Amino acid sequence: MSDKYIEKSFLYLLVVSLLLHVGVFALLYYLPETKQPPPKEPVFIDLQQMPELKAQQQPRQKEAKRQSDQRMRVERETAPRGTDMRESTTPSRPPARPQPQIRQREVAKAEPNRGAATGKPSTPLPSERREPRIAPGSSVASLLRPKERSGEQKTLPQLFPGAGKMAKLEETYRRKYENDIAEGDTRFLNTDDILFGSFLRRFENSVYGVWRYPSEAAQSGTEGITPVKITFNRRGEIVRVVLLESSGSKILDDEVFRTLKAIGPVGAFPRGFDKDEFNLIAFFQYGGARRSLR
Predict the structure, then answer these.
(1) How far, in Å, CA of 199 to CA of 236, rounded?
(2) CATH number at residue 207
(3) Domain, as residue range, for 196
């Protein structure tokens, strides 16, 4: 390429560049400037104390005129003279005393003598009239005679022991199973036990869900206590039930066995217990149409 061609092209490019720059400056010059909004002037507010609104006074209701308010002339009343003196001087009569009964007795004694003198039979006084005698063994006598309480009435069996007997009974079994309790595989029902507390609470809830007071025993008032020894396996299932002592009623004992057969597994043993079986000594109490498990 020749030098003249290069110079011409350079000049053309220079002219185009100048035109572009001039056009851009002209565009910027003639464009309207964006006016910024004037800054907002602060508004000052004077806080004035508002006057307290006076409570509207309710119009007083006019009181109704009473007759006593009106002035009226009344004649002056005067009591007759001497009445006060009469009332004060008249002595008060003492209350009538009841006549003694001695006179009635004297009249009753005088009546037969008077009848003998006049020859007329004397009428008996009401107090002297006697009730007609009723022959013993008659139907009327059996109706009027009060029913005698037979001493041969059968008393209901009171088999439920008191607090003292219950404590002695529990102490007896504690001594009997002292060695087993020391080994740790036999316990009494104590829901506050550190190791078996949750296990025994589950067992107690299961028993109360099934255990019932036999209707025959409740109606007849039969009460008693049935101590049993219950053996659980590691799955919490009851594998053996031993009756330690009868309550004196077969119905109550059978209900205990039925209850223990009806409940399902109680749950696994606690982790700290490594033996295969666990023995529980429980007391099933019946009394006052209520049940109590100890």
Answers:
(1) 9
(2) 3.30.2420.10
(3) 163-293
Tokens of 25: 């400056």
Residue 201 lies in a domain: yes
Split into its structural domains, the chain has a count of 1
Q: Residue 203 domain-assigned?
A: yes
Residue type present at position 118:
T
Q: How far apart are CA 227 and CA 166, in angstroms?
A: 11
Tell me the H-state helices in the chain. Answer: 3-30, 83-89, 102-118, 139-144, 163-176, 178-183, 197-210, 215-220, 250-262
> Could you tell me the pTM of the whole model?
0.45
Question: If 0-12 CB within 10 Å is exposed, 13-18 middle and 19+ buried, where does residue 247 land?
Answer: buried
- The answer to whether residue 34 sits within a structural domain is no
- List, for residues 214-263, the tens digit of each pLDDT value: 999 888 888 888 999 999 999 999 999 999 989 899 999 999 999 999 99
Distance CA 255, CA 73 (A): 97
Residue 247 lies in a domain: yes
Query: Hey, is 142 helix, strand or coil?
Result: helix
175: its two tokens:
């001594």
d(CA 263, CA 142) in angstroms, rounded, equals: 58
Report the C-alpha gap between 186 and 182 in whole angstroms. Answer: 8
Q: Phi-psi region for residue 251, left (φ > 0), alpha (ψ -120 to 50) or beta? A: alpha
